[in-house]
Design a protein that fits this description.
two-stranded antiparallel ribbon, 22% helix, 2 helices, alpha+beta, single chain
């Protein structure tokens, strides 16, 4: 695995205590770690809805979803009639 080169640049802190890390990162979510030696470490993060967390904790279910996405991308899908599972009352 090739490690990306580390890029260093001096960045001033503005009068509101902010540091800009560039427009390309605007809106991104970061974990901010304040080290005792004064270093500030930013770790890119993602947020997922709590209702989807089970899938990320279940490798078997996640593999099934990923396989389904591959099959869909390859056109290996078929239509099925799900009307028998409808909760709506028929008139």
């Amino acid at each position: 695995m090739n490690a990306s080169p580390v890029i260093h640049r001096l960045t001033p802190v503005d009068t509101s205590g902010r540091i800009s890390i560039g427009k390309a990162r605007a809106g991104a979510l970061y974990d901010v770690a304040y080290e005792t030696d004064g270093r500030v470490i930013l770790t890119p993060m993602v947020a997922i809805p709590e209702r989807e967390l089970w899938l990320h904790k279940n490798p078997v279910a996640k593999a099934m979803v990923e396989q389904g996405l591959v099959e869909m991308a390859n056109g290996e899908t078929s239509l099925i009639d799900l009307s028998a599972f409808s909760d709506e009352d028929e008139a």
